[in-house]
Specification:
- By secondary structure, the chain is an alpha+beta fold.
- The chain has one domain.
- It contains eight helices and six strands; from the N terminus they run E-E-H-H-E-E-H-H-E-H-E-H-H-H.
- It starts with 10 loop residues before the first strand and ends in a 5-residue tail after the last helix.
């Protein structure tokens, strides 16, 4: 398993000196992840066909988009989504103004997003392929927001605490604001707060709240 960045006082030779967070050791959490990801992948398989057809009509190109992210203890993994932007969007990023504060990138009216992609994002359907990441253990159903390597490169000491648990498809930021949260320090605060409050019951409550938020489209568009 590859590692990218390690904060010197916390990491040495790719191994964290801090105790493993109890959520990472939880067999119940892992069982919920496996069951949930299998259900999610079944839904993704059904959705993939109409999404692929719509993409061919709107903006031909690959059905899936992948991006390297940093997971537990800085491990690199490839996260999957249904493609929501034009092909080659990463090469056009410098042309888009960042509306977020801190070590994240967001733009509410990003011109790289396709018409189909905007629908996928509003409904969170673009995230369905991430159930594969959950199944193989790179992610969890509930956790912290998975950062990109360029975000992690600029981390200060407190930011590294976000990597003490597995990244999640949902979490505090998804339930409390989704794309409306544009302050990186606020995301860090919510991620650390999640670690402090974690329990299996709390995970299940966040999953239920996420379902409500997704269907109500609160903060998505």
């Amino acid at each position: 398993m590859r590692f990218l960045f390690f904060q010197e006082s916390t990491y040495k030779d790719g191994v964290s000196k801090k105790p493993i967070h109890r959520s990472v050791r939880s067999k119940v959490k892992r069982a919920i992840d496996i069951l949930g990801s299998l259900l999610g992948l079944a839904i993704a398989a059904v959705v993939a066909v109409p999404v692929a057809v719509a993409m061919l009509w709107d903006n031909p190109g690959p059905l899936f988009y992948s991006q390297v992210r940093c997971g537990l203890k800085g491990r690199l993994f490839r996260m999957w989504k249904f493609r929501s932007m034009v092909v080659g969007a990463e090469n056009l990023k410098h042309l888009v103004r960042n509306q977020a504060k801190g070590h994240i990138f967001k733009n509410e009216n990003d011109p790289r997003i396709t018409r189909v992609g905007r629908f996928l994002r509003c409904t969170s359907l673009d995230e369905l392929p991430q159930f594969w990441n959950v199944l193989v253990g790179d992610m969890s159903l509930v956790g912290t927001r998975p950062p990109t390597p360029d975000e992690v490169a600029a981390y200060g000491e407190i930011h590294w605490q976000r990597l003490d648990v597995k990244p999640g498809m949902t979490g505090e930021w998804q339930v409390h604001g989704r794309s409306g949260v544009k302050d990186f320090d606020e995301i860090v605060r919510m991620d650390i707060d999640y670690q402090r409050k974690w329990s299996v019951v709390y995970d299940l409550s966040l999953i239920c709240k996420t379902i409500w938020v997704v269907f109500s489209k609160n903060g998505a568009c």
